[in-house]
Amino acid sequence: MVRWLWWFALLWEALGTTHAGNMWPSLIAKAKAGGLDVIDTYFDFSGRHDIVRFIKEVQAQGLYLCLRIGPFIEAEWNYGGLPVWLRDVQGIVFRSDNEPFKYHMGRFVTKLVNMMKSKRLYASQGGPIILSQIENEYGMVEKAFHENGPPYVRWAASFAVGLQTGVPWVMCKQDDAPDPVINACNGRRCGETFAGPNSPNKPAIWTENWTSLYQVYGEEPLTRSAEDIAFHTALFIARKGSYVNYYMYHGGTNFGRTTAAYIPTSYYDQAPLDEYGLIRQPKWGHLKELHAAIKLCLKPLLSGEQTTFPLGQLQQAYVFKGISEECAAFLVNNNSRVNATVFFENSSYELPPKSISILPDCKTEAFNTAKVSTQGGTRSIKLGQKFDLPNIWEEYKEAIPNFNETSLRENVLLEQTNTTKDTTDYLWYTFSFQHDSLDTGSILQVNSLGHVLYGFVNGNFVGSAHGSPSNRGFALEKNVSFNNGTNHVSLLSVMVGLPDSGAFLERRVAGLRRVRIQDKEDFKNFTNYPWGYQVGLLGENLQIYTEIGSSKVQWSKLGSSGNQPLTWYKTLFDAPAGEDPVALNLGSMGKGEAWVNGQSIGRYWVSFHTSNGSPSQTWYNLPRSFLKPTGNLLVLLEEENGNPVEVSVDTVSIANVHGNVARSHPTRPSDFMGGSKSN
Ligand SMILES: *[C@@H]1O[C@H](CO)[C@@H](O)[C@H](O)[C@H]1NC(C)=O
Ligand SMILES: *[C@@H]1O[C@H](CO)[C@@H](O)[C@H](O)[C@H]1NC(C)=O
Ligand SMILES: *[C@@H]1O[C@H](CO)[C@@H](O)[C@H](O)[C@H]1NC(C)=O
Ligand SMILES: *[C@@H]1O[C@H](CO)[C@@H](O)[C@H](O)[C@H]1NC(C)=O
Ligand SMILES: *[C@@H]1O[C@H](CO)[C@@H](O)[C@H](O)[C@H]1NC(C)=O
Ligand SMILES: *[C@@H]1O[C@H](CO)[C@@H](O)[C@H](O)[C@H]1NC(C)=O
Ligand SMILES: *[C@@H]1O[C@H](CO)[C@@H](O)[C@H](O)[C@H]1NC(C)=O
Ligand SMILES: *[C@@H]1O[C@H](CO)[C@@H](O)[C@H](O)[C@H]1NC(C)=O
Ligand SMILES: *[C@@H]1O[C@H](CO)[C@@H](O)[C@H](O)[C@H]1NC(C)=O
């Protein structure tokens, strides 16, 4: 039997944390201090997402890397990481046995592998990459592709293996991953749910141990306790797991328009390193102690034989014994209500409910997953600069286009993504019609598969509606009064990211589907009717959030043009003193996007409340690397009626860090690399 060297890995979503690269060294150092050995990452090549530089930084700090190539990655990332142009390729069916898709996927994977090889980044070349992943959780959707699923899996595996990287490939949630590709588990309880490797010479790998769960608009963040994470990680190792990857160890920020549908800008803030890169206790410290305890068991784990036997009705021992007396034990109490006293090798041990004790020498308890000794360190946000003087703001009202001002015309309702190509969240649908009475009782009814809709009649706002993560279709139904004569109806359909999951992403439909006006007597159907379109907002097209662009329009004093939705606001501010991370408090705003010095720091949607009545996200990460000492340009695009006068620039810090942060158990993976495989 070959047992693999195991690693603790963290999934670092480099795509998500598109922090400027100067944040990488300290984030990687904190991961290493937390007892991790491997960084998992997705990637991108453009701008500040320099994958080669990131991997070299990981290597410089003595860590390893798992490269999750995909190219489909899901990851709550816009379109699951696939480029939007791919949907326009003739005859394409994503992620199936389809020649156009396989051609483009093959080209991408080859380009990336060649880039890594040319920089000598694979472990086989002396680099840090020890694993790479092809596809992502395909087993979840495979059935939808019928007979085109299995041949695609076989093709993807053999294509990847054929690239001869010299390091293994994994497929996660793919029980039938073809040899030699390793089937890996994703989930919260892989120690309990994973059926194991699908052939005896493969290691048990857990590619995503969910440290929390990503949040969607309208829902509270889901938290998972340090004890629960530690229990399942220890169990997975006890059951001969080789590699546990926390998803996420650091989630980061989805800057710009990079989130998938309905995903907030902040990503996995509940992870051991929070959105700002600060240590979240007790998660970080408890897992660090777990990692240290497991590393004390290395020799028997790597070269010993595992035996397992019951210690009680719901208690179990997993014991690893080497040839020369080394012994490590994992004592499991799976009773979630009571303490259990168990006898193991003539000693008694008290195991708290639902916990695992780790005995690196089969005698002394080095760690128990339910006993959290890490303390303190609560995050606090200090109010910095308030923008509460109306005269420091200027505003620019976005024009509401009428049909007669549009140039793109069709006699049907156009599909939104096909029309915008995802260059913008915004698509205006406009039409004009004659109304021959003064009847005030009309009802405007619009059905949409976009995410948000704002309705205007003759330039006046009449109402808005939005969908939700669980209910994507929605309707706007408003009583409106039309003029006797010509009327202009302008409907702004807004997307909050493209979908990232499920089969047939290329066929998803968004935007308006049906428009009717109901009078007392009858209704008019405008679904097939002369429509005029405007792609994007004027302010976006002029890039008025940049220094150059902002001079292209006439800004006016705050509040000078009434309370119309769709207003741009701008002001200047100085960076807060000190080194603490900076966050923009947008709690007084509604929905929109924010830019600092021309960089989008993401969409905000403060008005979409959770069931507790609070915003899904109030503070927005503003990396110091985006800031100058003085005169930073802040621009907000507000779709609703938010109040910029209450916005503030705050700083984030951890008060009172005590406990075990500084203590470390210095077992380095390089110390036992040589013993990584044994028969
Ligand atoms: C993964 O980590 C989460 C906490 O983040 C934990 O609750 C869960 O049990 C772990 N998953 C498994 C399979 O252990
Ligand atoms: C613990 O008990 C639960 C419920 O019976 C079961 O699903 C799970 O697999 C058990 N876990 C272990 C580690 O025995
Ligand atoms: C388990 O034992 C501890 C320490 O003896 C005690 O504080 C705790 O209340 C016990 N828990 C239960 C569920 O009995
Ligand atoms: C446990 O006790 C028995 C009887 O006293 C003894 O034979 C055995 O060697 C002991 N085992 C260990 C691991 O100490
Ligand atoms: C379009 O119609 C509006 C409202 O009647 C009018 O104010 C505007 O001047 C027209 N624009 C053009 C380009 O005809
Ligand atoms: C997308 O637009 C093109 C023309 O621009 C059209 O031929 C095609 O049918 C559209 N596809 C969808 C899915 O609407
Ligand atoms: C609507 O306008 C037309 C033309 O100006 C006029 O003849 C008609 O009386 C008006 N109808 C009502 C109900 O005011
Ligand atoms: C429209 O107005 C009527 C009464 O005039 C009212 O019964 C109805 O609820 C209103 N509909 C909407 C969508 O506001
Ligand atoms: C409106 O027109 C569209 C296109 O002709 C048609 O599919 C739809 O059924 C009509 N809706 C109603 C309520 O008549």
User: Which geometry do the CA atoms define?
Assistant: globular
> Considering DSSP H and I runs of 4 or more, what fraction of the residues is helical?
10-25%
CATH architecture of the largest domain: Alpha-Beta Barrel
Mean pLDDT: 89
Strand order, biggest sheet? 1-2-3-4-5-6-7-8
Unique ligands: 2-acetamido-2-deoxy-beta-D-glucopyranose
What would you report as the Rg, rounded to the nearest angstrom?
28 Å
Beta-strand fraction estimate: 25-35%
Number of strands: 35
The count of helical stretches stands at 12
Class by SSE composition:
alpha+beta
Integer count of domains: 4
CATH superfamily of the largest domain: Glycosidases
CATH topology of the largest domain: TIM Barrel
Signal peptide: 1-20
Enzyme class: hydrolase
Family: Belongs to the glycosyl hydrolase 35 family.
Keywords: Apoplast, Glycoprotein, Glycosidase, Hydrolase, Secreted, Signal
Brief rundown of the structure:
This protein is an alpha+beta fold and 679 residues long. 16% of the residues lie in helices and 31% in strands.
Structure, described:
- The protein is of the alpha+beta class and 679 residues long.
- The protein folds into 4 domains: 7-280, TIM Barrel (Alpha-Beta Barrel), CATH 3.20.20; 282-374 and 661-679, no CATH class; 380-396 and 543-655, Sandwich (Jelly Rolls), CATH 2.60.120; 403-536, Jelly Rolls.
- The chain has 12 helices and 35 strands.
- An 8-stranded parallel beta barrel has the order 1-2-3-4-5-6-7-8, surrounded by 4 helices. A 6-stranded antiparallel sheet has the order 28-17-29-34-31-32, with no helix packed on it. A 6-stranded antiparallel sheet has the order 18-27-19-24-21-22.
- Strand 10 and strand 11 form a beta hairpin.
- The N and C termini lie close together (5 Å).
- The model is unreliable at 1-18 and 658-679 (pLDDT under 50).
- The structure holds 2-acetamido-2-deoxy-beta-D-glucopyranose (NAG) (9 copies).
- One 2-acetamido-2-deoxy-beta-D-glucopyranose is lined by residues 441, 443, 477-479.
- The site of one 2-acetamido-2-deoxy-beta-D-glucopyranose (NAG) has 4 residues, from loops.
